[in-house]
Write a structure and sequence with these properties.
Length: 402
């Protein structure tokens, strides 16, 4: 209407043509079920897509994309950077929002820089605070440096062993995602987390390393598995591998993994649903004589389409006291056990006492799907309160008066 030439905006989507076997679909990084397709190439609502890096290494493919969705708006940091005032129309435009940088390994979404701190705080700190004073920590995978950064915030940590398969993942992350491994604000650490004197960085297969290092059994107070979720990591269903993970823990040791997509209440029993390998891994832990407690929890802010589940396993039941601590107790532990930041900013943006309290009781879908096991676990008969039954007093230490 004004006579001015309007800018043409191009939006594109990519879909593979033809038919492929199930195995061929799994290995193609642009298959419709791949994370790259789901998050970048297929959806038209992703209006900004820049392929920053694609690299074939000895062990697989690394992709980095910058993306922005149509309904995305500037965030808090964008507002500060652009000096946006209230009512500024740029608050409502995706063009002024910073793109989200996504790291994919073999087509699987490994990390998003805008939600990196939320994901890695959720993966690391519930397990770290379940231990009374973790000194030796193992990290399987985690080549982007996010888990390492969170571990190094703990004053008690004296040594960290990180086992990453692909050296290129570390070098690419340091170059294209430097903020992930930035430890410059942590008192007592180096500018880059990978340069910290407490770190031993080993490039080999993480699960094979744990299985081979039998002489180091009982080494790790906390073991963080920052690798693929069980459905993309066959090692989680191998009894010998699971035994090696447990044996690598110290007597009070704690294991934590990214357990994949959280269950829904309409899901079938777990071994018949979308996460059968997670169920197999869980059963191996339940049957292991040296695992005393298992906790599952989920978080919806970790950068994935669906809420992400996490699993924590403890060798000693004493970790239950820490896990079920009161909000103020956990907040004090966060204050007392973490290094201060040079900038005086809070060390954590996601995890605190209230967050941990929300992890203590998983959503009901976990209980529902668990109780769909066959045969039904005996404890499932005690769900709810039968109002038709007579009440009586029970004293665990005095059976005569019960």
């Amino acid at each position: 209407e004004t006579g001015e030439k309007e800018e043409v905006v191009t939006v594109w989507s990519h879909e593979l043509r033809g038919f492929r076997t199930e195995d061929a679909r799994k290995v193609h990084h642009l298959d419709g079920n791949s994370d790259i397709s789901k998050h970048v190439t297929s959806p038209l609502e992703v209006v900004y897509k820049e392929h920053v890096l694609n690299m074939e290494t000895e062990y697989g493919r690394i992709d980095i994309w910058d993306v922005k969705e149509r309904d995305e708006t500037p965030g808090y940091e964008d507002g500060l950077r652009l000096g946006l005032a209230p009512q500024d129309p740029r608050w409502f435009s995706y063009e002024d929002a910073s793109p989200c940088r996504l790291l994919f390994l073999d087509g699987v979404l490994h990390m998003a820089n805008q939600t990196d701190r939320v994901f890695h705080e959720t993966l690391v700190h519930p397990a770290m605070f379940a231990h009374p004073s973790p000194k030796s920590v193992g990290i399987l995978g985690g080549g982007d440096g996010g888990s390492l950064r969170e571990v190094l915030k703990h004053k008690s940590v004296t040594d960290v062993t990180m086992v990453e398969l692909d050296e290129k993942v570390v070098s690419v992350s340091k170059e294209y995602l430097p903020e992930i491994s930035d430890c410059s604000d942590i008192v007592g650490s180096k500018l880059n987390c990978f340069d910290d004197d407490r770190l031993s960085l080993i490039f080999t297969d993480a699960f094979a390393y744990v299985k081979d290092k039998k002489e180091e059994n009982g080494k790790f107070d906390v073991l963080v598995a920052d690798v693929n979720q069980p459905e993309n990591q066959d090692e989680y269903t191998d009894a010998d591998t699971v035994n090696a993970l447990v044996e690598s823990l110290s007597p009070l040791g704690v294991l934590v993994i990214n357990a994949g997509e959280a269950p829904m209440i309409v899901d079938p029993r777990a071994d018949k649903g979308m996460q059968p390998k997670r169920e197999a891994f869980t059963k191996l832990l339940e049957a292991h004589p040296k695992i005393a407690s298992i906790f599952v929890f989920e978080d919806a802010q970790s950068g994935y389409v669906d809420p992400v589940a996490f699993l924590v396993a403890c060798r000693d039941s004493s970790c239950r006291k820490n896990w079920y601590g009161q909000t103020d107790e956990i907040n004090y532990q966060v204050f007392d056990r973490l290094q201060p930041m040079k900038s005086k900013k809070p060390a954590l943006i996601q995890f605190d006492g209230a967050t941990q309290r929300s992890y203590q009781v998983p959503p009901r879908a976990w209980e529902t799907v668990y109780c769909r096991r066959e045969p039904e676990p005996f404890e499932c008969a005690y769900r709810g309160l039968d109002m038709t039954k007579e009440l009586f007093e029970y004293y665990p230490k005095n059976e005569d008066e019960s």
